Amino acid sequence: MSINHRKIFILFCVALLNTSFTQKKVNPWKKLVEEKKCNVSFIFYSKASNVNNGLVIKIENKNNFDINFEFTIIAKSINLIKEKTFSGIIGKGKIITGSNNDYLWIPELNGESIAEVGIKKWKFYRVKK
């Protein structure tokens, strides 16, 4: 390999390393609320059923103790609004998400796409032992 080829190869490697280190990791979760070291996020699920799209909900407890939670998710299409309340207990340092735990919600919006997602009436409080 000639000196010029080595220089080009080295510059290419440096550029490649620089690019890979500077790229930000894309987080697909959209945060709805963070309070008392608890997060509620969602991912839009475009093919949740044959007719309607849905939302995968994620609850994360960053505390060193169990948390009681309750909140209502709002899904809006152009013509409809649907709501669903989620409640339960999440262990310290745990994450709850997915269809196995009933955190995949498919609001019946008559085939209309979800245009907006919101949250209301959220409560997070320490489990009393």
Shape: elongated
Distance between the termini: 71 Å
The parts where pLDDT drops under 50 for at least 5 residues are none
Biggest pleated-sheet summary: 5 strands, antiparallel
Nearest-integer average pLDDT: 83
Total number of beta strands: 8
Helix content: 10-25%
Total helical segments: 1
Explain this structure to me?
The chain is of the alpha+beta class and 129 residues long. It is 16% helix and 45% strand. The protein contains one helix and eight strands; from the N terminus they run H-E-E-E-E-E-E-E-E. It has one helix at residues 3-22, and strands at 30-35, 38-45, 54-61, 67-76, 81-90, 95-97, 104-105, 116-126. Strands 1, 2, 3, 6 and 7 form a five-stranded antiparallel sheet that branches. Strands 5-4-8 form a three-stranded antiparallel sheet, with no helix packed on it. A hairpin with a 4-residue loop joins strand 4 (67-76) and strand 5 (81-90). It is elongated and about 45 Å long. The mean pLDDT is 83.
